[in-house]
Design a protein that fits this description.
By secondary structure, the chain is α/β, with parallel strands linked by helices. About 40% of the residues lie in helices and about 20% in strands.
């Protein structure tokens, strides 16, 4: 491991913040999180639309909580969800935005309250107001992150194309972080409703091509209905590289299958998740490892992931 490495982590939802950040922050590295910002549902999306903040703060909140060094009580208060489904951290950021007109002030205010170490950055991928759109194989267009994430349409129809409407430009500090990075990780996270909205932002693919960092994709553990039905590892990689317009240096994927009862229990809680993702290629860039936690819900083990990521620095 190279000391003081600069690691950029791209992602959103519960994937990357829970899988990568908790253990990575224990090492002497600088972490720059580039968060998705185009939520349209749940607390973050409703506040974004209701208060015209341009960006949503949900994934920024998740990253801040993962990197936080605040006490348990403070973190619990900011993670609290009220009777109307609003998370206090989202309300806090929205209030600062409403008072100052500054999205950056909202993010910095949250970092300060949650005592995120100054060396780490939490960066929205864009400050622009846009929506992700998906074109299905029958020509139908689905508008908005939440409608892709939880399909009201026929989820058996494949997604053929995704784009942002209107187009959005990358936040300058996000581009600078990519330029200076030693390692860039992408994911884990929902391919189209989470990761694509980052990779489609103007300037991000171009910054990737210029960056000398090692580009690492962390593959999802399971397929998801409506987005990645029947996908294998190489299918995820093909789509990520298509969005980037360039090749990845490494792909980290899980090789372990949980026992049947554990899988049944997990799918009861998450019926949208299908089978475990498998690999059918001998591509030397692909790193296979036992990545799942030893018990409980099927999830990436942050300690296992951190060690592999740091071995690449």
């Amino acid at each position: 491991m190279k000391k003081n490495s600069k690691i950029v982590c791209l992602g959103g939802g519960n994937g990357m913040p829970h899988a990568v950040l908790p253990s990575l922050k224990k090492y002497p590295v600088k972490i720059s999180v580039i968060s998705a910002t185009l939520d349209t549902g749940s607390s973050a999306g409703r506040l974004r639309q209701g208060f015209k903040t341009g960006i949503s703060f949900g994934d920024i909140r998740r990253a801040a909580l993962a990197l936080s060094e605040a006490d348990v009580k403070t973190k619990s208060e900011f993670a609290y969800r009220d009777w109307d489904g609003h998370v206090m951290a989202n309300v806090f950021c929205t209030a600062i935005m409403a008072a100052t007109g500054s999205q950056e002030a909202a993010v910095q205010g949250l970092k300060t309250k949650l005592k995120v170490p100054e060396k780490h950055e939490i960066l929205p991928v864009t400050l622009d107001d846009a929506n992700i759109c998906a074109v299905l194989e029958n020509g139908q267009t689905i508008v908005g992150e939440t409608n892709i994430d939880v399909p009201k349409h026929n989820g058996n129809l494949k997604i053929k194309e995704v784009y942002l409407e209107p187009k959005a430009k990358a936040y300058s500090k996000a581009l600078k972080a990519i330029e200076e990075a030693d390692v860039i990780t992408i994911g884990p996270g929902d391919l189209y409703s989470s990761l694509a909205q980052i990779l489609l932002v103007e300037g991000i693919p171009q910054a990737f091509k210029k960056s000398k960092a090692k580009k690492v994709y962390i593959c999802n553990l399971m397929q998801k209905h409506g987005e990645t039905d029947h996908f294998m590892v190489q299918d995820f990689v093909a789509q990520i590289e298509k969005l980037l317009g360039s090749h990845l240096d490494f792909v980290i994927y899980n090789k372990t299958k949980p026992d049947t009862q554990r899988m049944v229990s997990h799918k009861k809680e998450h019926p949208e998740l299908l089978d475990m993702v498998e690999n059918r290629t001998s591509d030397q860039r692909f790193i296979e490892a036992d990545l799942i936690t030893s018990s409980g819900p099927i999830a990436h083990d942050p300690d296992k992931l951190a060690k592999i990521i740091l071995s690449l620095t």
